[in-house]
Amino acid sequence: MESNRRIRNVIFIMLDTLQYNYLGCYGNKKVRTPNLDRFARNAFLFENAYSEGLPTVPVRRALMTGRFTLPYGAWQPLAAEDTTLADILWGREIQTALVYDTPPMRLPKYGYSRGFDYVRFLNGQELDHTTFLNRPLDKGWSPINFTSPGMVYNEHGEFIDKDGEQLLEEIGLFLRQYQDRRDDGDMYIARVCREALHYVTDVRDKERPFFLWLDSFDPHEPWDPPSAWLGEKCPYDPEYEGNPIILAPWTPVEGRMTDAECAHIRALYMEKIEYVDKWVGKLLDSVKKEGLWDESMIIITSDHGQPMGKGEHGHGIMRKCRPWPYEELVHVPLLVHAPGLEGGKRIPGFVQNVDVTMTILDALGVLDTKNPDCGFGFPTYDWQDMHGISLMPLMRGETNTIRDFALAGYYGKSWSIITEDWSYIHWISDDAFNKRVRDCKIKMDEEMWTCTAGAKVVVPERDELYDRRKDPFQLNNLIDQHKDVAEEVFRKLKLAIGELRTS
Amino acid sequence: MNQLSDNNFRERIADTTEGIVIFYKELCPHCKNMEKVLEKFSAAHPHVALHAVNLEKNPESASMAGAERAPTILVIHDGEIRASRAGLMNFREMNAFYTENI
Questions:
Q1: How close B83 gets to chain A, by Cα (Å)?
Q2: pLDDT tens figures, A178-195
Q3: Ranges of chain B with pLDDT below 50
Q4: Region A297-325: what's the mean pLDDT?
Q5: CA distance B50 to B41
Q6: In this predicted structure, what is the pLDDT of residue A369?
Q7: Angle CA(A244)–CA(A248)–CA(A249) in degrees, nearest 5?
Q8: Residues with Cβ < 8 Å from A352, sequence gap 6 or more?
Q9: Cross-chain residue pair A382–B92, CB shorter than 8 Å
Q10: Where are chain B's structural domains?
Q11: Mutation test of the interface with chain B: which of A450, A458, A491, A497, choosing the one with the most B Cβ atoms within 10 A?
């Protein structure tokens, strides 16, 4: 416990939709992420971190409460009975701050800023871009020049569908903002990092420890790195002749977009990640200059990846990670700088996002959460046990494993279990199985949690089983060849989800 | 947990002032999870009797209670079945289910 005492503060950095395998430290050879790579070289890199219930909102709920959401709920407000990190830290010496531009956390009545001492939200990202609806758009800017006309219009020049029409409206809302951008310092990531630094340098009480949650919606789409709005070639795809594609419809790729267009979107995403890396790097440098490095745990992670094309790029889907739990969507980066512990280590054991919550509490010395209020008559009403496990013992080298497998999925749509040897996907909703993107219905009923007399565990025919060592991106379904394995893994999945459902 | 069977189900329920019954199946993962919840519930409510019935071996009791699926939980008060629910609950939901039905 001696090493814990060195940690006074925690800075938690959430970078939305940052796919782990686009970072140099996770093996990418193309994308330039020198700052995150340097951070990783001196920190703990978790090779097998998985988000459990996707997408954006349930991930925040899991991280704030330390509880799995997968058996309980989907995209929904923070509940009155949820006990969050901010609730637990209230009334203690530790001051709390949320600096964010992630609109899903701020949707009406969603309440994810609850309990933080200091809250600063920045406008403009998706869902909140309508803030700029009435801003005049310069005549030189036209939405169709920022996507592929072939995704929007048919050969008669008519909209292919309502998605195409909405796409142009949405792009227009972003252009109303981009027209005032002059350099990368005007990007969302730059603004939110500057605001976080403002908190660190000017706002907080420097006599007291702090917990800062920085939630950046970048590198979430639109794929809007500087080349897109400066009218330059994307450095990751300089031969591409078409418009920059800053947004595309959320649809199956086949028949709607070409392989070159998908590759261009991925190139813009890479360029955007390069700037996310740059501005997070600047923030980390400033934290060092403030003299906080040796007393602050810094955690950098993401909520999920994004489908951007065929095969391992997105299983044939473009944009939005729902409703299926494939590797490119559920495997997330997780980097932790822990003062007092020698970093530079890669940890292969499975960890889940709920474990981050416990690690934060552990680092701040408040892990004893049996009765997690501050102790002066302000109870955390309706307290429920957390599911997470602190990562500190893993980082101290006291153990190599805290979990035998990881779980992932979408509430009422799909469940997945990831073991060292296999990954298994169980489709709950017919729509999820059929890969319907927009109107995939949630299915939850008691049949999931019960069985009838005489019934055996039957592996559904449409489920999927993959050899994780040979096929990590789940392209070759082996369920018919390994029925015995499928049954065993499926049983394990049902038991694990049921255990969470009852705890 | 008291194991009940078709031989004594009716009498034992009639004799129970406050109680819970779980209809379970052997090797059913959901039942195992629900039994853990009942253990926690029992610790919080030691005066509430806890009964268990093997669903597959006791079809008459199951039929009497309308229990078609495992796990099914019954709330017993003054010798009568007051409520029945199939599926899983967590501790808080189990508490609410019990207190709302006695």
A1: 16
A2: 999 999 999 999 999 999
A3: none
A4: 93
A5: 10
A6: 60
A7: 165
A8: A49, A50, A51, A52, A68, A388, A403, A406, A407
A9: yes
A10: 2-100
A11: A450
The CATH 3.40.720.10 domain(s) of chain A lie at: 2-396
Residue-by-residue DSSP string for A53-66: B-SHHHHHHHHHHS
Question: Do strands A331-332 and A44-50 pair parallel, antiparallel, or not at all (unpaired)?
Answer: antiparallel
Alpha carbon distance A65, A492 (integer Å)? 25
The per-residue DSSP string of B46-64 comes to TTSEEEEEETTT-HHHHHH
What is the rounded CA–CA span in Å between residue A301 and residue A250? 25
Residue reference for tokens 């790195």: A225
Whether A382 contacts chain B with CB within 8 A: yes
Give the other-Cβ count within 10 Å of A375's Cβ: 10
Cβ atoms < 10 Å from Cβ of A381: 10
Report whether pLDDT(A2) > 60. Answer: no
- Residue A450: its pLDDT value, please? 80
State whether B70 and A498 contact (CB < 8 Å): no
> Which residue spans of chain A are classified as CATH 3.30.1120?
412-501
Phi and psi at A201, nearest 5°, equal -90, -35
User: Which of B55, B88, B92 minimises the CB distance to A453?
Assistant: B55
Distance (Å, whole) CA A90 – CA A85: 9
Domain A412-501 has CATH 3.30.1120: yes
- Would you say residue A5 has pLDDT above 70? no
DSSP β-bridge partners for residue B89 = none
Structure tokens at A229: 């709005």
Q: Which of A453, A495, A502 lies closest to B56 in CB terms?
A: A453
Contact A451 B69 (CB under 8 A): yes
| A322 has a pLDDT exceeding 90 | no
A458 touches chain B (CB under 8 A): no
Q: How far is the CA of A325 from the CAs of A6, A53, A349, A415, in angstroms? A: 38, 9, 20, 7
Based on its alpha-carbon atoms, the radius of gyration of chain B, rounded to whole angstroms, reads 12
| Selected residue with higher pLDDT from A455 and A389 | A389
Q: Are B33 and A447 inside 8 Å of each other by CB?
A: no
The Cα A465–Cα A418 span in angstroms is 10
Token pair for A291: 């003299």
User: Which CATH superfamily is A2-396 part of?
Assistant: Alkaline Phosphatase, subunit A (3.40.720.10)
Distance of alpha carbon B36 from alpha carbon B72, whole angstroms: 14
Measured distance CA(A427)–CA(A295) in Å, rounded: 45
Closest CA of chain B from A362, distance in Å: 25
Residues of B in contact with A491 (CB under 8 A): 29
* Cβ-Cβ contacts under 8 Å, B28 against chain A: 451
Q: For B2-100, CATH number?
A: 3.40.30.10
Nearest to A358 by CA among A49, A16, A63, A81: A63
Q: Is A503 on the interface with B (CB under 8 A)?
A: yes
Residues of A in contact with B34 (CB under 8 A): 502
